[in-house]
Amino acid sequence: MAPTPFVHGLALAWSDGALSRDGAIMLETLQKQLGISDKVRSVQEQSWLTDISKTDRRSFGDGDQILREWLEALNDKESLAPAARSMGRAALDVGLSKTGWSEAFQFADGLGLGDELALGVWLEEEAEPLNGWPPALDPLAVILGLVISVPGILTRNEAQFSDGTPSVSINHPDAQPSQLSWMPSLLPINSDGCEWGWENDTRADSEMPSSSINYSHSVLLAWIRRLVTMRRDRGEEGLSGLPENCLLVPSSTDVTYDGDTMTLSMIVDMGDSGLVRPWASVKVSDSPEIVPAPDGIADSWVKIHDALGGLLLTGLETLPRQLLTASGAEVSISAPSLNGSWIVHDIV
Q1: 0.70 cut: is pTM over it?
Q2: pLDDT-above-90 percentage for the chain
C-alpha cells in the first residue's frame, strides 16, 4: 500500500534513524496543513512506527533534509491542482490499474487534490497534457508510474524490437515489452517473452537468473544516473549534504556487489578541494536498508553517505515499478534480492 501524505512526511522525518526537534515541529505543521485530526494522526503514526524499523524507508523522498521544502511546496495550490489533473490524464496513457487508482487517489485526497486527480482521469478534456509537475507531487508521480517529467514521454508507443542479449526479463503471461521512452537505449528483445536489452550490445552481463523479474546491474546503474540528472535538470540537489558549488559527475556513478550487499559511489568535484568519490552500501535482504556509515567519519560525510544510500534505495524502489508499468503487468512483487550482479523479484 502506498503511503499517505502524513506517512510520507513521517518517513522523511525519521529517515536518519532519529526524530529531531525540528522534525517534530515540522510534523505538527504537516498535520495542520493536511487538516487531519489527532486521532487520525495517532493511528497512522503508530501503525508506521510499529510496522517499520528506524533504518527502513516507506517514502519516495530523499530524506528529512527535504521535508521543510516539501512542506513549503504544498502551499502552492495554484500549481498543484492543474498538475494533479494532468497527472491523472497522463496515468491513462501508461495504464492505470484499480489498485494504482486507489492508492493514488488516497494520496492525492490527503493533499486535498483528490477531485483534481479524478477530473484528469475521468474527464480528459479538463486536463492539459502533462509537461512536468511540481516536486511536491513526486510521491504521487511514483504511485502513478510517471517518474520521468519530460514532455511527451508518457505515450506508449508500439515497440520496435531488436535482436540482442536480455538485460531485463519479466516472466508473466500478461507482460509484453514496449518502447521505453525514459531509457531509449534499452530496447525490447525480439523473443517470445518480455525482455529488454541494450542497443547494439550482444554481450551478456552474466547468466540471467530464473526469477519472475530480473534486471542487471547495468540497468540499475543507468537508472540511478538518470535520477541524478533529472533532479539536476529540475534545479534540485542531485545529492543532499554536499557543500555549495560542488558538482556531481553522474557518468562516474558505479555500483559494485558483494554477496547481499551493493555499494554505490560517485565522483564529486569539490572545487579547490579536488575530486572525491563518496560511497554508501545497501544490504538487500528481506527489506533493503542502508549499511551504517563507518565509525569515526565526520558528520558532514555521514550526511553524504546516507544521501548516497538513499539514492540507491530510491533506484531499487522505482525501477521495477517503471518496468512493470511498461510491461502492462498488474502484479505485486516481493522485496528485491541479489543473484550475482542481477537484482531479482518474485511475483506474489
Answers
A1: no
A2: 15
